[in-house]
Amino acid sequence: MYASLPQLQHYDLAHVHTYAAWCDGHLSAILLYCLDGSRIRVINEGMRISPDELDRFANAVFGYYTKVSVITLHAQSKSERNPQRPSTRMAVTEDIVIDLPGNEQCYLAQLGKSSRKSLKEHLSRAQHELPGFQHKVVTGEAISEALVDQIIGFNHAPMAQKQRRSAIDGKVRAHLMRLLRARGWVGVITTHDRICAGTLACRFGDDVYSIFNAHDPQYDAYSMGNLSRHLLINASIHAGARRFHLLGGQSSTKRNALRQRHTLYDIRLYRSQRCIARDIFNLIRLAKESLVYRMRTWLEDLNMRPHPSKIAHAVLSLQKMLRTTRGYVRRLSGLPA
User: Fold this and answer.
1) Looking at the predicted structure, is the pLDDT value of residue 6 above 90?
2) Closest to 49 in 3D by CA, of 96, 13, 89
């Protein structure tokens, strides 16, 4: 998704350059990049570049731009070997991916017993107690702004009550609408008279990317957000998709959905070892970002353990206490939590 044309059109492409490579007469790579003095930043994200392709790109760029000292690529998959050029690679984010089987029954069979039981019970209860309960998928140009705003609004109200600020502002919403109109796959749960929940997603080939999932708080008892995601996963299986992406940031609901964490890295290629020394302050900031990410995933993995050790339990308790204290202090200060 992050290397697709609908996503890339979010940027101002007026000053973006293009690198294209061919192998045996076939196009093998297209990279978009920005030039900023001695630095080049590749815009494409979330992809896997072979070491040979990365080496060819670096050699071409450093040969063409004699004053460029570093090339940065964000959120890239790990390659089998390191590039030939001096380089650094630090884990900074992730993509949580579900490999989809051929049918819904196989997917359910692979879930944990408690997850499978919970989904079936909540779905059965919702179907029996909510008149006109149904799930449908709205695609492309049929996705209305009113539908998207209503789904986003489900998330705004609870966050406002907790004095938290939503990450979806006007600019993000406008970009999201363009992306949905081009490749949108919106799963919606409705009754006779209202929308209960929705999952905003996009499909690119064999992959479905879940971007946003929310539900009306009055349906909390039905675990409606989990149902919305689960039913869209089923719809993706029926439509022949092979992977369902939950993107970054784990939660218990993602862990229960057969997810696999695919770590993504910030990769930097340098003209020489001396250029690494010149970039030391940027590398320190990047190392800090990587440490925060690794600590967060470590804490999430601790939460996954059914019987954490005494040390793990103490760490989790401290984390909870710090979150509570931070929220309390920010509320007293009148700031969003």
Assistant:
1) no
2) 89
Q: Which residues contact 117 (CB under 8 A, 6 or more apart)?
A: none
Please report which helix (H) or strand (E) contains residue 57, including its range.
helix 51-64
Q: Which residue has the tokens 């789904």?
A: 151
Separation of alpha carbons 188 and 147, rounded Å: 9
What CATH number corresponds to the domain at position 170? 3.40.630.30
Residues 40 and 132 in one domain: no
Arithmetic mean of pLDDT, 13-39: 91
- Domain shared by 273 and 235, yes or no: no
H-helix or E-strand spanning residue 291:
helix 280-304
pLDDT band of residue 154 (cuts 50, 70, 90) is confident
- The answer on 281 and 201 residing in a single domain is no
For residue 2, what are its two tokens? 């992050």
Lookup result for tokens 């690119």: 204
pLDDT at residue 156 is higher than 80: no
Q: How many domains does the chain have?
A: 2
Cβ atoms of 62 and 271 within 8 Å: the answer is: yes
Condensed to tens digits (0 to 9), the pLDDT of residues 114-152 reads: 888 889 999 999 999 999 999 999 998 899 999 999 998
- The answer to whether the beta carbons of residues 329 and 163 sit under 8 Å apart is no
pTM value is 0.80
105/201 same-domain check: yes
52 lies in which domain range?
5-93+264-300
How far is CA 93 from each of CA 55, 75, 77, 247, rounded to the nearest angstrom? 23, 7, 10, 9
Residues 6+ apart with CB under 8 A from 326: 337
User: Which one is predicted more confidently, 121 or 310?
Assistant: 121
- Same domain for 195 and 284, yes or no, is no
Rounded to 5°, angle at Cα 163 from 246 and 332? 135
